[in-house]
Structure formats: structure tokens, C-alpha cells
Amino acid sequence: MNSNITYAGIDEEYSKLETAKIVLIPVPYDGTSTWQKGADKGPKAFLDASENMELYDIETRTEVYKQGVYLADAVTENESPEKMVEAVHQTVKKYIKRNKFVTAFGGEHSISIGTIRAFNECFDNLTVLQIDAHADLRKEYQGSKCNHACAVYEASQNTNLIQVGIRSMDAIETTVMDEEKTYFAHDMVSDEFWMDSAIDQMTDNVFITIDLDAFDPSIMPSTGTPEPGGLLWYETLDFLRKVFEEKNVVGFDIVELCPDPKEKSSDFLAAKLYYKMLTYKFLDDNVEDGYESNFNETGSGTNKFSKFDNDDDN
Fold it and tell me: H/E element holding 276?
């Protein structure tokens, strides 16, 4: 990124890598999307909206940007999906090893193959919480295992994958999906306990990947593959706050903002969502305190848990 640009226009004192607790990695990639193009423009639209967002959070009466947010150089590798995934993987891992709370903003969902791989190598017994309209469980699609339709296949094999908001999938994905850990949108409508159930199935270390098409198109129209019947704003925040309160969220990414120049509300939803998630993460942290990640120093990548028992919580 341009060295003069900071996340949300924050002052330089809060944006230095050396002192910031949070790292934000933009990944403007749109190489495998199969319907509406434009997710590569998502990071810029998100950053533009963030610059015009109020930084005082009314709900918590905090200003989380003072914890420090470093805007990293964008990952711009686009020669192939596989090379992009590896570039994201290595970049994310580099900042995890620097003891930062690492976040990424896409781009389309294929970028998450790289983010999840890095977190799974660095954190023990990882749960991946996927909030999404689509299952994204294909092993391969259009000749690549790094397609957006394959975004969490690897996670389904190597981590404790919890899927929330799903309402669109291919029949072949039923052979991979763990339905006990899948919260379908049509069931969530009438299940008042779905949030607690999902959290109960998580291990202690949680990585969150949010595809913005998880939200209902009435509040989030600007995404590549909108699906009716999605999540609404306050129920999503309620769920996320509970996850942050009860689990150790080790990082997150947000993907699939496909900006429309005539419709800015989606850009602001994405900006506000990102800021809210940071707010929940650092709610009980003093600005003066250091950030201590619990990443595995060896980074051996030995997490190969395809299934977890519900009582295997920590």
C-alpha cells in the first residue's frame, strides 16, 4: 500500500508495524469468480469506506483503532490461483510469527485457502468458523483446487470446520459436509439455540472466515453471488460477540465485497463489520498492554483433525 495511506485514516502513531497489535492484509484477487466480477476492487472500496467511518463504537464505548492497526502491502500475486494462495499463506504466516493479530480482506473466497492454511499451521486444534451462503466444499472446480468454490475443502479435512448460514450448495458437497456442524439458513430461522450450539462445537482457538454473501441481499447487495434468505446485521453481531467472548479468536478474514459505484451501503457494512470484529477482540485489552498470541512456535502444521468430538473443547 502507499506508505501515506493508513487504515481508516488513523494517525501515524497508531499505524506503525512495530507498535500495532493488528495487521490488515488486503488481497485484491478475483481470478476464479464464476459470476459477477469485481471482488478485486473490494479492498479499495472497503478502505475508502473505512476512512469515512466514525471510529467511536457506541455499543462498547471504545476506540479500538488505538490498539494499533498496520495496513500491510497488498498481496497482488495473480499469475495463478495456486501462486496467489501460497503468497497469502506466506504473508499471513509472516505476520503471525511477529506476534500480531492478523486479518485479511479480499478479494474472492479462494484467498481464504491461504489464510486458513497459515493459521492451521500456527495454532493448535484450530476451529474454522465459516459464515457464508455457500458450502464451498468442492475438492476441485474448473481445474483448480484453489477455486473460490473450494474455499474450505482443505479446512474440512484438516480443521474443526463449523459452517453457518449455508443456503446454496452442490449435491457432491453433501459427501464432504459434516451436517452436525452445519447451520443451514432455513433451520436457523426457527432455532433459537443455534448460536450456543455452534459455539459449543468449537475448540478454543477459532479462525473466522466471512463471505459477505452470508448477509441477506437486502442489506448486502454488492457481492458476487447474492442468495436470498441471509443473515441480518444485529443477529450476526450478537453471534460474533459471543464467539469473541467465549473463544480465543486468533484471526479472521472477510471476502467477496463486489463494490457497486452506485451502492455504497455494502462498502460501509463491510467496513463496520471489520471494525466491530476488532472491537470485540480487544474489548478487555488496555491500549498499553502488549498483545500475546498463543501461536505454536514450531509452526509444524501437524493439525490434521478431520472430525472433533463435541466435548473436545480445548
Answer: helix 265-281
Instruction: Work out the angle between the directed axes of helices 111-122 and 81-96 (0-180°, nearest 10).
Output: 40
* This prediction's pTM: 0.94
Give residues with Cβ within 8 angstroms of 264, minimum separation 6: 49
Distance from C-alpha of 73 to C-alpha of 175, rounded to nearest angstrom: 39
Q: Measured between alpha carbons, how far is 83 from 58 in angstroms, rounded to an integer?
A: 41
Select from 160, 112, 157 the least CA-distant residue to 134.
Answer: 112
For residue 248, how many other CB atoms are within 10 A of its CB? 16
Q: Name 289's Cβ contacts closer than 8 Å, sequence gap at least 6.
A: none
Interval 229-250: pLDDT, tens: 999 999 999 999 999 999 999 9
Residues 167-185 pLDDT 10s: 999 999 999 999 999 999 9
Q: Cα-Cα-Cα-Cα dihedral of 32, 38, 42, 43, to 10°? A: 70
CA-CA distance, 7 to 256, in Å (whole number)?
19
Determine what percent of the chain is predicted with pLDDT higher than 90: 88
In sign, the C-alpha dihedral spanning 255, 207, 95, 67 is: positive
Which alpha helices (H) appear in the chain, and where do they start and end? 42-51, 81-96, 111-122, 153-158, 185-188, 194-200, 233-246, 265-281
- Alpha-carbon span 19 to 27, nearest angstrom: 23
CA 161 to chain centre: 13
Provide the grid cell at 190: 426457527
Q: Give the pLDDT mean for 144-173.
A: 96
DSSP bridge partners of 131: 164, 210
Residue 255's contacts (CB-CB under 8 Å, 6 or more residues apart) are 39, 42, 105, 106, 107, 108, 109, 111, 112, 209, 210, 211, 212
Length of the chain: 314
182-184, strands of its sheet edge to edge: 69-71, 22-27, 101-106, 248-255, 205-211, 126-131, 160-166, 182-184
Pairing of strands 205-211, 126-131: parallel
